[in-house]
User: Fold these one by one.
Assistant:
Number 1:
Amino acid sequence: GENVEQHPSTLSVQEGDSAVIKCTYSDSASNYFPWYKQELGKGPQLIIDIRSNVGEKKDQRIAVTLNKTAKHFSLHITETQPEDSAVYFCGKSGGRANSKLTFGKGITLSVRP
Amino acid sequence: NAGVMQNPRHLVRRRGQEARLRCSPMKGHSHVYWYRQLPEEGLKFMVYLQKENIIDESGMPKERFSAEFPKEGPSILRIQQVVRGDSAAYFCASSPLSPGGLGDTEAFFGQGTRLTVV
């Protein structure tokens, strides 16, 4: 129930194309789903998150969708740019007292100029 | 409002020494998480603490590792008698109290401490 599965493990796209990264989870109690971006040598940075009472959230070129029934959520990046190249982690938490924040294994996104 | 502060950024220890990693959460945050990251691997959960209380330490190795988050001062991750396999980046994240107590608040990360055991 604690695991978050993230796939693919690497993704390469052409600059300007869209990128979609998907995560699945098994704990139906989870109600908070953040996405983090980690650049080389730095700490993970929160880029967007979603709670289970909504199905989609958008912030400029980034959007996250959540399907609670199927227990998966996805990060969508449109009009990708070389600076989007990084490792992206999906996480989950919430829904029960003292719930901890756990992550998938990360996806390395490469945007080819 | 300063972000999560971790120090030192880099730490070199000889095998058998002790390593102390410090994490000062963001102002107003009462929850701290510690994660370990090996090269080209994900963020592995270690421990979740609130002030003066360990909430979940299911990811901590049973021996040599301990963590605390005192009423005053930073959270400390302590590794005794380090071995080469402890070499990794250790990240701390902090979050505010969840209004419903259900752990659904944003967590912010520090820049990490990179531990090298020689």
Note: Chain A touches chain B through 26 residues (CB under 8 Å).
Number 2:
Amino acid sequence: QKEVEQDPGPLSVPEGAIVSLNCTYSNSAFQYFMWYRQYSRKGPELLMYTYSSGNKEDGRFTAQVDKSSKYISLFIRDSQPSDSATYLCATTSGTYKYIFGTGTRLKVLA
Amino acid sequence: DVKVTQSSRYLVKRTGEKVFLECVQDMDHENMFWYRQDPGLGLRLIYFSYDVKMKEKGDIPEGYSVSREKKERFSLILESASTNQTSMYLCASSPHGGGSSYEQYFGPGTRLTVT
């Protein structure tokens, strides 16, 4: 079993839709959770960073961590074609070892 | 704004060549990382450095070495490039942690092709 599982997609949604992207993880020691957006042939860009459980909001993006079910979510409200990218979740227990999901490809249709 | 820069966006090298990939960060981060990213395999850690002149092997260090002579600069060296090292190479940095700060920032990547 992979330490972080992420559905690869692709996920296609119409412009303006609410998008839900999810990851599950297996190690309860993970405390720090990140979401990255990666456009084609570019490096990952840090979108959201959360510590432990709870929600964090930044503009149209909300990150949610449920440690009881080991579930990480990223919600995108009012999705735009410019949101079309691959989204990676990542986590660490606080060491140098970061575990990444393989990414979900999102396409927002105009 | 954290800035991580990499020396080249695209690089084409021949088999057997020695290849240097350079990474510079401007946020005074202690930790720096080199990953490679391949379709279907995700990000795999090659090497990690937590301080000047300090390094730790990651998951796939074979065929690679690193150098960190200054805090802001972390170099990846392919001693003798091979075709199976064709990949996207990503450098990242993060603060030392403590408190709740472990976020990692990436550079734009270097797409290396070995022919």
Note: Chain B touches chain A through 25 residues (CB under 8 Å).
